[in-house]
Specification:
7 strands; alpha/beta; 5 helices
């Protein structure tokens, strides 16, 4: 998975990796295949059934049943496929800017061109908190939607 390879390249290897909005753990699985130790991973999702499945699939990782805005601890390294709805995606990035400190990084799957949007104004206001290190169109196709996406690596400014 392209996102996991980028995470291994850009993340501080001594810090925990948070799989935000983890679902069934596709990104966690990819990180494990990239050699990340399970004890370094924490997945969280609001959907209890998905977190239960995540815990069964990856018993050596940590998992939380929470919405992203309920997480209030520092998240140094975040990998995520956050909600694609514009308002929810803005909320996610605002949360990320609050839970990260300067130098912390995230590898995100976002709607194509989202970080360039001028409206709503909150997109650009929130993106000012981040330095964009890398972006590329996602190569793997979405099975369920025809949505175009891009992978973006950001650092908290």
């Amino acid at each position: 998975c392209q996102m996991a390879a980028l995470a291994v390249r850009y993340f501080d290897n001594d810090s925990r990796i948070v799989d935000a909005c983890c679902g069934t753990g596709q990104l966690t699985r990819a990180l494990l295949l990239e050699g990340v130790h399970p004890s370094a991973l924490l997945g969280f999702d609001a959907d209890a059934e998905l977190v239960d499945l995540y815990e069964r699939l990856y018993p050596e990782t940590a998992a939380l049943r929470m919405q992203f805005h309920e997480i209030d601890f520092r998240c140094e390294n975040v990998i995520a496929n956050p909600p694609f709805e514009i308002v929810e995606c803005v909320y996610f990035l605002q949360w990320l800017s609050r839970t990260q400190r300067s130098g912390d990084r995230a590898v995100l799957l976002l709607p194509y061109g989202f970080i360039d949007k001028q409206r709503p104004k909150a997109v650009q206001e929130t993106m000012r908190h981040f330095i964009i290190h890398y972006r590329t169109p996602m190569q793997e196709p979405f099975a369920r939607t025809a949505c175009r996406a891009e992978i973006v690596v950001v650092e908290r400014a």
